[in-house]
Amino acid sequence: MKKFPENFLWGAATSAPQSEGAALSYGKTANTWDKWFELNPELFNANQGPSITSDVYHQYQDEVKRMKEIGMNSYRTSISWTRLLPDGKTLNQEAVVFYRAYFQAMLDEGIEPIMNLFHFDMPWWLMEKGGWEVRESVEHFAFYAKTAFEQFGDLVKKWATFNEPMVHVECGYLHGCHYPAKDDFKLAVQVAYHTLMAHVRAVEEFRKLAIKDGQIGIILNVSPAYPRSNSPEDLKAKEIADNLNIFSFLDPAVLGAVPEKLKEILAENQLLPFVEAKDKELIKNNPVDFVGMNYYQPFRVKAPENPMKPAKSPVDLFNSYIWPKRRMNEYRGWEIYPEALYDVAMLMKEKYHNIPWYVSENGMGVAEEERFMDENGIIQDDYRIDFMKEHLEQLHKGIKEGSNCFGYHTWTFSDCWSWLNGYRNRYGFYRVDIENDCKRVIKKSGYWYKELAENNGF
Ligand code: BG6
Q1: What is the DSSP secondary-structure string of 128-179?
Q2: Number of domains present in the structure of the chain
Q3: Position in ligand 1 atom list of the atom nearest CA 120
Q4: Has residue 4 been placed in a domain?
Q5: Is 133 an annotated catalytic residue?
């Protein structure tokens, strides 16, 4: 049997905009997802917008009981910035009441809440001023973070500033799948830098408040780059990809400095962001206590052919390629490669002074899951169980070799809404019937997870 360390966190993750619903009616102002859906509903799968999602706002009590039912001891979601501070300044008391009740319900069931502050949900009023493009957003975020710590710091001990900060950068400023859907490499770098400074300022506010037993971290998406060959060109492409995609946030968050190599790459391509004189000190003085790693897929990388110099887009620095032996989750278009989780465990041990970290997301999204429903209405998602087992085996190996991993969270607990993809791909332990008041039915993987958590291994 593969046993995991004592007090290991077993749980799942979601976010406020993807699970709570009631965004416009209760939040009083919109975030970019509410607004984008209002402006361009045709961009969203099956016209599925963010207003109801999985209705956790109303159903949180039952939701928490279900967490307990499948043996979870921890849960990560986020606070909605627009719900808490509709105009960025004034506290919404309804939001305070809701979140306090939600967190207390978790604590009553022995479930540790891990609370994240930003999960791609920029308030619309701030987006109208430029969002992360403008430095002003850093201080708005610091104020929001401070408010959240003050309001909920007695209930929540583990905090995260951002979920996958590279995703709103890439999707919003390179690939067009998040608002404002621009394509501008230099602006993307500036947006990333302001996000980094917002993270650092939030950590600073957290330290000032000295919350008893409080810990703060950041949650990053990690797709380790594997080069096509050992040629100097392919190895260089790997080095650049890792610097831009992973070390850009991991180094400053854990080691207190932006990597020199990254600065070199940005300088060579005339992409250096505007910085303020005090920033370097701020970054140095505010390292995190822990890191969450969202792992889904590796990144297969090769040298670019005929790149532009200076680079106009990341494809001028590295290209993706199809690894001939790859196994795919065809629904999501993501490669399945559990071995990378072991490599992540070793990276944390060796490069990041073995800082405490956990797997904050890992999971398998499958479309039209009703195909796998049995006569009792239960989805027989053996593919998901196999996916988790394979990843846990690799994680276990990393832990045995000394990596300081304290938990494994899946994406997600109950099926949830996903940005432009709506409810197409399902990830949860519970099926959510969106046609029927979001009624939940456990899947086979939910029963499996219960056994896993209760045995602290498999
Ligand atoms: C993570 C995000 O990258 O992956 C989630 O933190 C997201 O917000 C999840 O929903 C699954 O990806 P997707 O695009 O299939 O929903």
Answers
A1: TTTGGGSTHHHHHHHHHHHHHHHHHTTT--EEEEEE-HHHHHHIIIIISSST
A2: 1
A3: 8
A4: no
A5: no
